[in-house]
Every structure is written in structure tokens, then in C-alpha cells.
UniProtKB/TrEMBL annotation:
Protein name: Plasmid stabilization system protein
Superkingdom, taxonomy of origin: Bacteria
Species of origin: Serpentinimonas maccroryi
Gene3D superfamilies found in the cross-reference section: RelE-like
Keywords: Plasmid, Toxin-antitoxin system
Length: 82
């Protein structure tokens, strides 16, 4: 089974998104953070889901990753901050 690694940058992105949303809506921040974790977990089992690598210019994906012998999350984005 492939292992999942969050880069420091992706971890910082995730923390910043959480903190920004939590200031106005703690429940929504928790729900979104859990969604990021769920989606990342799915990528471990199915690394071909979505598109790895550079995001499209018009709509960056919520998670940017690299797959090889391990899955490395490079960035974590929220639509409002993209």
C-alpha cells in the first residue's frame, strides 16, 4: 500500500485554510479539514483519481499531489482562496 506524506507547504496550506474558516465558522472548518483528509486517503488507494501535477490555470484542484512509490501532497487549496 502506498504511503501518504504531506509536505510542510501542504500542511501549512491546510492549517491556514482551517484557521481562516474557523474564525467565522468552526464547524465548517472542521468539516472541510475532514474532507481534505478523506480525499487524501482516497488518493492513497486510487492515485489515478483526478489529475496529479500542475493545476489548470483556471481552476486549481483542492489537493495537488505527486504519485510514485509514495503519494506526496504538495498543496492544499480552498476555492475561496484560489
Amino acid at each position: 500500500m502506498m504511503e501518504l506524506f504531506w509536505t510542510p507547504e501542504a500542511t501549512q496550506d491546510r492549517d491556514e485554510i482551517y484557521n481562516y474558516i474557523e474564525a467565522d465558522n468552526p464547524a465548517a472548518a472542521l468539516a472541510l479539514d475532514e474532507l481534505f483528509a478523506e480525499k487524501a486517503g482516497r488518493l492513497v488507494d486510487h492515485p489515478g483519481l483526478g489529475q496529479a501535477g500542475a493545476p489548470a490555470a483556471h481552476a486549481p484542484p483542492p489537493l495537488l499531489w505527486r504519485a510514485g512509490t509514495e503519494l506526496t501532497l504538495e498543496a492544499c487549496r480552498h476555492g475561496a482562496g484560489a
